[in-house]
Amino acid sequence: MRYHNDPDGTRLPIKLDPTTNGEFAPVPLSPVHHHARKLALGAAGKHARHLGLTRRTFLVSACGAASTLLAMNAAYAASGCRGGYYDLPSESALDMQLARSALDRQEFIFDVQGHFVNPTGAWTRVLPPGAQPLKSFTELKGCSTASAPGLGYLQCLGADAFIKDIFLDSDTDLVVLSFVPSTRKGEPLTIEEAAATAGIVE
Question: Distance (Å, rounded) from C-alpha 184 to C-alpha 181?
Fold first, then answer.
């Protein structure tokens, strides 16, 4: 299988990178985190070869997740960190069934900040000529309408895509819809539109 996102397997399945939502500068990684990343990426290549998989296929598997968590354990232990750790058998990095039994549990997953827009809402009719709001978000999704003319790309950020991404393609159980700061006239999503989508999910 050819993956559209990160086909060469350079991204870890559990994010260990400087991160920001654009509201603040990202906090740099500490040395222990750099060490954990190095161990995890090294293990990914080694374990993928052992299992006869591509790096990307390995990384998106349960073994890839287990291998990453085990690398974090090793890095934290090497730095002298004491306290909590990820309780996984070392064999789970190579044994898919063991990895799944350790990781595939029925945790309640609560997303505290979700967003989508009405792709054809009134707000689109008051945009300046040529404006392409939120365009950068669709460039990361591999959405089929991302290159649609005009504002067609906003379908990638609409209710249908949101429901699919959050409730069908992930293990999320509950999500809080957040609204972006805007004027009433320029709201990308109104309360009424959000309520209608919530009704579909319920």
Answer: 9
Under the phi-then-psi rule, with left for phi > 0, alpha for psi from -120 to 50, and beta for the rest, what region is 83?
left
Taking Cα atoms as reference points, which of 111, 88, 106, 108 lies closest to residue 98?
A: 88
Place of tokens 């690398």: 71
CA 47 to chain centre: 23
d(C-alpha 199, C-alpha 202), whole Å: 5
- State the alpha helices, DSSP H only, in the chain: 31-51, 55-59, 62-78, 96-103, 135-138, 159-163, 191-201
Question: What are the φ/ψ torsions at residue 155 (nearest 5 degrees)?
Answer: -60, -30
Query: What is the pLDDT averaged over residues 72-97?
Result: 93
- Given a cut of 90, whether residue 119 has pLDDT beyond it is yes
Instruction: Answer yes or no: are the C-beta atoms of 145 and 155 closer than 8 Å.
Output: yes
Distance CA 84, CA 184 (A): 47
Q: What is the pLDDT of residue 2?
A: 62
Whether 188 and 118 have beta carbons less than 8 Å apart is answered as yes
The C-alpha angle with vertex 188 and arms to 183 and 190, in degrees rounded to 5, equals 80
**pTM tops 0.85, yes or no:** no
| Cα 88 to the center of its chain, rounded Å | 23
Q: Among all chains, which residue has been given the structure tokens 């939502």?
A: 21
Rounded Cα distance between 131 and 41, Å, is: 40
